[in-house]
């Protein structure tokens, strides 16, 4: 990804709480980010076909099929020609850094369809049984945004990296990032849509609108592929806008708190919102009414994950920095992951036992470790 800068006017408020719902709190333990100081490269994320622009990150916690515990899956959003929304590979990077391709999704099997094609996003996760779910927001000719109606899908792969089904419906449009939780028989996916609800288009190409966060409830069947049972919009009125350098600025990072609150980063407004009762709610929370923090150290926030202490770890698209935010919205620490790193950060996750943070570095097309 090329360097890009988002200018947001008039956002200077930190820990802006606009919801009457009680926000969770945590004990005043030291910031999780304070325990680390060194960034090292784990390995390249560029496979043999030349795909670049790593976006999604998912840690393998159990060995199944070709998935090896301790490895990290990374999805690529760009093709070798560096056209956004045309990357088709998921790579598996072990701690040794010796990359191997987990999945090549340039062509889906007969009977499976993803509206518009394949362009793998930050939405990446692993379900019990080794089922891998990855989002796709494919672009049209020249890397332009597609029409938001039925744009993209969620692809489901088995533990051998073979696609077995796709999830598509009117509530899935440009799945951009994902958080998940599961039991032995069920799973819940939270997906931030980058499109939907277009309010403005130029020459047929969408340029701006409002989008949603959707909850997808799945049934797990052991050796058989998961099935989508219900889909519910739980957040709406998130603004999105087309952006030449970043393709789109929209709600991106998702993290599910220990109390069932879903947190959402909004790249365009430099803010984080909280959707309470995300696992059970049947109505949509409005983005502006649920803002917990805005501005401050947030600078085009993108990927987000939950730290072991319950805080939110957010990476910025504009400056290569990460910020730690409490569930109540207090920004308590900021560190530099990539110096002069505008456009370099996207997906991230924590290592087992809280020993570090794995994150993609788009500037080097690599998986890095902050430890």
Distance between the termini: 24 Å
CATH superfamily: TolB, C-terminal domain
Order of helices and strands: EEEEEEEEEEEEEEEEEEEEEEEEEEE
CATH classification, class level? Mainly Beta
The CATH architecture assignment turns out to be: 6 Propeller
Low-confidence runs (pLDDT<50, min 5 residues)?
A: 5-21
CATH topology grouping: Neuraminidase
| Helical run tally | 0
Description:
It is a single chain. The chain has 371 residues and is mostly beta strands. The protein has one domain: TolB, C-terminal domain (Neuraminidase). The protein is 0% helix and 47% strand. The chain is built from no helices and 27 strands. Strands 10, 11, 12, 13, 14, 15 and 19 form a seven-stranded mixed sheet that branches. The protein has a four-stranded antiparallel sheet with strand order 1-27-26-25, with no helix packed on it. It has a four-stranded antiparallel sheet with strand order 2-3-4-5, with no helix packed on it.
List keywords for this structure.
single chain; 371 residues; Neuraminidase; four-stranded antiparallel β-sheet
Condensed summary:
The protein is mostly beta strands. It has strands at 39-44, 52-59, 72-78, 89-93, 100-104, 120-127, 131-136, 153-157, 163-167, 175-182, 186-193, 198-202, 205-221, 224-243, 247-249, 251-256, 262-266, 271-275, 285-286, 291-294, 301-306, 312-316, 321-325, 331-336, 345-350, 357-361, 366-370. Strand 25 (345-350) and strand 26 (357-361) form a beta hairpin.
């Amino acid at each position: 990804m090329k360097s890009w800068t988002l200018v947001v006017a008039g956002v200077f408020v930190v820990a802006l709480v606009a919801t009457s719902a009680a926000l969770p709190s945590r004990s005043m333990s030291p910031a999780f980010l304070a325990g680390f100081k060194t960034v090292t490269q784990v390995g390249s994320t560029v496979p043999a076909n030349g795909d670049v622009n790593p976006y999604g990150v998912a840690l393998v916690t159990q060995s199944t099929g070709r998935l090896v515990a301790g490895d990290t899956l990374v999805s690529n959003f760009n093709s070798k020609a560096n056209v956004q929304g045309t990357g088709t590979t998921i790579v598996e990077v072990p701690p040794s850094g010796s990359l191997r391709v987990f999945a090549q999704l340039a062509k889906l099997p007969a009977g499976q369809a993803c509206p518009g094609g394949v362009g793998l996003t930050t939405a990446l996760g692993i379900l019990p049984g080794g089922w891998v779910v990855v989002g796709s927001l494919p672009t049209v000719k020249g890397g332009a945004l597609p029409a938001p109606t039925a744009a993209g899908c969620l692809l489901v792969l088995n533990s051998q990296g073979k696609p077995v089904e796709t999830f598509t419906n009117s509530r899935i449009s440009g799945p951009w990032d994902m958080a998940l939780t599961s039991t032995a028989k069920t799973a819940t996916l939270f997906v931030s849509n980058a499109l939907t609800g277009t309010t403005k288009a130029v020459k047929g190409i969408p340029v701006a609108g409002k989008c949603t966060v959707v909850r997808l409830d799945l049934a797990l069947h052991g050796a058989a592929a998961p099935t989508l049972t219900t889909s519910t919009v739980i957040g709406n009125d998130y603004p999105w806008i087309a952006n030449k350098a970043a393709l789109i600025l929209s709600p991106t990072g998702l993290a599910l708190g220990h109390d069932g609150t879903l947190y959402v980063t909004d790249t365009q407004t430099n803010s984080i919102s909280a959707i309470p009762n995300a696992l059970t709610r049947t109505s949509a929370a409005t983005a502006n009414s649920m803002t917990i923090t805005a501005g401050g150290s947030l600078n085009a926030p993108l990927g987000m994950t939950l730290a072991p202490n319950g805080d939110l770890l957010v990476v910025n698209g504009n400056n290569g920095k990460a910020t730690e935010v409490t569930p109540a919205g207090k920004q308590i620490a900021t560190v530099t992951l990539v110096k002069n790193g505008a456009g370099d950060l996207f997906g991230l996750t924590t290592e087992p036992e809280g020993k570090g943070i794995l994150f993609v570095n788009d500037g080097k097309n690599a998986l890095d470790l902050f430890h």
